[in-house]
Structure formats: structure tokens, C-alpha cells
Amino acid sequence: MFRAPEDDRKSRLSRLAALGCLGVLLLLSCATVPPPEQAERWMGVLPSPSPDSLYASLDVASSWPLVKSLAETAGAEIAQLEAITDRLTRVHARIRLSSERPPGVCLVALGEFTPGSVACRLNLDPSWQRVMLDRVPGAGAHWPYRTYWVRGNIQLAVPKAGVLLLAADGVTGAAELLASLHAPDPDPLPVRALAAAETSALFLYLPDPLRLISASASSSAPAPAVQDPGAIFRRVPIERAWITVRPHEEDYRLDAVFLLTEVENPRSVEVLLRLMLTLWMRGSEVEDAVQKLKAVRIRTEGGAAVIESLHLSAAEIASFVRTVLPEQPAAAAPAAP
Predict the structure, then answer these.
(1) pLDDT (0 to 100) of residue 215
(2) Residues 113-136: what's their mean pLDDT?
(3) Domain residue spans in the chain?
């Protein structure tokens, strides 16, 4: 959890926003249909977890202030993002992060649009190349199940009403996402994490949180270990983690679950996590940090450490999200259509 220079953070967020938003910007002029059901299965369409990746799930309506705070930091056009919210209901994504190469993004965007309306726009734009696959196993022969479009490193498919698949991963493409759509991973995340993903405004799942924090550390200015929340965090025996953010009155409530590899001394884990939070909130200049820390509950149970009731503003949540992302090498993002 390191604070990178402001210009570097903006560059990184701009690239992530460009990759993630490029596909959904296509939806702005599409006809509406009822959104799809059974959203809990969509995480299984995404690529399997890897140590250098994280999953994110975003409820567009309830998390709009969070999206706006991140977008403003990245310099994104707020008017364009506001138009997106008229079409989308939820976005699930897997983001591959590394300090050595640009990020990779695969996402499933759910909302109110039709395959035909998106295909019409793409087919009329010569910068997009249409690719027709053989019949996808488990799917019908109807064209949306075996068609995707390519432009640069972006691959986009709309296999059914209200479902858009986007791959800008460099490893997994739209063809693999289309195949996964009909045979999703039945257990992509722990049951507790998957349930949290469906009920939160913003959900982050970290398959290997210590590796991500280490990558963030290697790409940021060094800090004394006693003042560094990342150094404290790496002393906690964490295997996996997830974070949920939910609206609460005028702010947001952040809760976190850390699955532990071993718990020889539960009290020491709780102390380390509280110290980490204290250092992070001090470095991030969180408003009323002392009072917020007093309200936080930290406990260990059943091989897990739990942080509950951390109340933050949208801007403070955005700051927290930025601190867990490693710096990315420069990469030119394609312009939105």
C-alpha cells in the first residue's frame, strides 16, 4: 500500500480506464432490453485467478460516486461515464497487474442493450475487424455466439441481449470468453467471496494479495519499514483476500476478509492489521481518521481475519484502491470509437 507520485498514478489509472471503458462506450446508442438474470455466474466466465491478478465487481448505480472519484483522478470525461450508467447495471472484471508489463483486462458488462444494435455500429466502423468462429461448443449456431470484433489489442463480443464480453488481456481473447460463457467455472471464488460480490457496490478479490502489495512496493518510492503500511501488511500470513464496499448513509462502509495460511497468534494478526490501517489512513490524510479507527472492528475467526465497519468517503475509497495497484509501464491505449 504505497503512494506513488501523482502523475504516475494518473497515467496508470488512465490506461486502466481506457481498457475497461472502451467496450462499454459502444453501448451509448443501443436499444434497451431487460437486463439478464443470474448475475452470480458471470465471475465464472472470466479467466481463472492468477497470482498477479485481481477480480472486481461493480454495481454501476450504487457505486457511481466511486467511479467518478477514480475517473476524475485519471482525467476521464465525466460526461461520457455518466452516459454509460444509463445502459449498464453491473460489470465483472479480471485485471492482470504487473510492474513489468501493461495491465490485462477481461470483463463481462451487464446491462440494457442488444447484440444487433452493437453489431450494427461495429460493422459500420472500418477500424473494427469482424471474426466469425466455428460453432462454439455448447452454444447454438446463432451468429452472436460465435462472432467477435477486433481493434488493436481489444476484442469485443455481444453473445446475447444484455451481455458484453471484452478482452484486452494479451493472453485470453474473446473466443475463450465465448467458450467460457457456455461452460463457466462453477467455483471461480470462495463461496463467501462470491456472495459478497453480488451484494456490494464495489468488490475486489485478490488471489495473492502479498504479491500485489510487493509489486506496488517495488514500483514506488521506498519508505521506512516502520512507517510503511505495505511492509506491515506483508508480515500478516495472508493467502487470499476480498474487500467489499457498500453505501452507508452519506459515505461508504468498507469490510475486508483475509484468509490466513496459519494463525499461531490471532491477537498479533489483529494488532498488525490495525497498525497497517493506522499508517495508511495517516498517509492518505483521511478525514476524522481517529474516530473512524475507533469504529473499526478487527477480529480473527475460523482461519480468517476480518476488518469491519471502516467508513470512508468516495474519494478516500478511490485513494485506497489506487494504493493497492502497482505502477504500470507506459502503453498507448487506443482511442474510443
Answers:
(1) 57
(2) 88
(3) 6-35+48-182, 193-323
